[in-house]
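Before the break, one more example. Copy the sequence into your notebook; we will annotate it together after we see the structure.
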Amino acid sequence: MLDDLLVRTRLVTTAGDIQHGTTSVLEHSIAVALYAQELADHLHLKIRREELIRGALLHDYFLYDWHNGAAAPSWHGFKHPGIALRNALRHCSLTRVEQDIIRKHMFPLTPIPPMHRESFLVCIADKICSSFETVKRTDKLHVYREAAMELKLSLRRIRGGSTQAPLPAERSISDGTDGIAEDKKNLSTF
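Here is what the structure looks like once it is written out:
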């Protein structure tokens, strides 16, 4: 699943784009995927976990620096879900649930509400993560390392693999290095 996203998309390149505060778009997307799953587990909701994860990872796949007025469209908050969906559809096939997650994660800024549990969960997790990233900007590296590890374990459970298998070296995408190729290699072992 994640291998497919890494091969077909430019998802890894979003590690170099800032989303909120000092958090990259990729870090934000991983955190949203994790927290949406945690919300579902906490509420004992039956979900399509793989679709939730894919939709969450691509929900902000708009591929521009929205802080740069020249590069970003006006009204980014309203327009970026449609842009992210178009970009994602150019690079990979998406289920209806994944499309709904991407298109409606900004509800109520986007007027049509989410149609699926997974979409609501990502919408809520996005608000929680965005708030945290905007207000509490310091000392969060450990949070994203834990989030990445939890996402890896979750993906292994989906695939029926062992959750005890050795994980790739603990190298965070936000540790200040610029090795996109290494990030891609590490992320592909999810």
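The beta strands are 18-20, 23-24. The helical segments are 2-8, 25-42, 49-58, 76-91, 96-104, 117-135, 141-159, 180-187. Try to locate both features in your own notes.
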